[in-house]
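Q: Got a minute? One more chain.
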Amino acid sequence: MDRRTFISLIPGAALVAASAKDDPMRSPIRAICFDLFTLFDPRSVVKVAQRYVPAQAAELCDAWRVRQFEYSWLRVAGAHYADFGAVTEEALVYAAHARRVTLSPEARDAMVAAYSQLDPWPDARAHLQEWKAQKLQLAPLSNYAPAMIEKLLTHAGFDPFFDALISTDRARTFKPDPRAYALGMEVLGRRREEIAFAAFGAWDAVGGAWFGYPTYWVNRLGVPREELGIAADATGPDLSGLAAFVRNR
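A: Always. Here it is, folded:
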């Protein structure tokens, strides 16, 4: 599939035990794995919802997003995996019922499709161009299903920037399962200390740090950190901080 490769990982495969944080000799960063929401604004979905439920769009989308992640984690914990596209639709149906919102099949399809047509954050393209020029390996490491990643990057014209597209679907799990993060090493052929992980969600920053990636939390929405006894190596509101983190590692 040209440059872009989806690599499968056998569930339960052994993970590399060493962490960059345990090594006094830090390796320079050779690659960056991104949660897609560090590059794309998930709030774009609200604009689509406003076409169908204008008065309730923001509240519905908030409830939908929370249930998306709850369903993904429940399915992994219960050993009943379904990909993120299916989880996204299930979560929307639940959120609509919970808020007594009636969605036509057209509205439901359009809202689910909106997750593959998000608006890029204003700084995303320039930084991707910069990192590509520096010959860093770049890859999303996303809970999105493979087809969702393809559509999203093609829609934004971002696909030429990436060396690989990494979907946790190939491990039949979701972040923060360590098997999901391990795909970055498997796909890119790098040691974990050579891969910077860019998280959007506070929980994902914790997951990347638990796994042992040099982790940068792109806290675009200014939310509190999780209280789980660990944090990202650094944090900031946009990609300029990530660029400095990678450069100075």
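A: The mean pLDDT is 91.
Q: Perfect, thanks.
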